[in-house]
Amino acid sequence: NYHVEHHMFPMVPYHALPRLHELIKHDLPEPNPSMWHAYREVWPVLIKQLQYEDYFLKRELPPTAKPYRDEFHALTVPAAAE
Fold first, then answer.
1. What is the reported pLDDT for 67?
2. What pTM, to 2 d.p., does this model score?
3. Pick from 47, 53, 58, 62: CA 20 to 30 A from residue 82's CA?
4. Which residues contact 8 (CB under 8 A, 6 or more apart)?
5. Helix or strand or coil: residue 10?
């Protein structure tokens, strides 16, 4: 549904998102197979964020992904979140 693409490139018009997806799909994490799967993944993270505000969900990128901004790839999960 091009949700990730929309957030990565918010100025791209909706009708161009399929073409954008084709250009960057090799750099994107594996999509959730369903909405329920996404909720199961995110809900524990939201609960953990009540204790640790800097806790976040880090999705693995394919090994061939080319970072658009290197500083984002240096981020690690805070020690308190482990």
1. 66
2. 0.59
3. 62
4. 24, 68
5. coil
Measure the CA–CA gap between 2 and 20, rounded to whole angstroms: 9
What are the phi and psi torsion angles at 69 (to 5°)? -140, 110
Q: What are phi and psi of 31, to 5 degrees?
A: -75, 155
| pLDDT tens-digit series, residues 18-74 | 999 999 888 888 889 999 999 999 999 999 999 999 999 988 888 888 766 666 556
Question: What number of other Cβ atoms are within 10 A of residue 5's Cβ?
Answer: 20
Q: Domain count of the chain? A: 1
Say what the pLDDT of residue 64 is: 82
| Structural domain boundaries enclosing 8 | 3-81
Angle at 9 between CA 5 and CA 14, to 5 degrees: 65
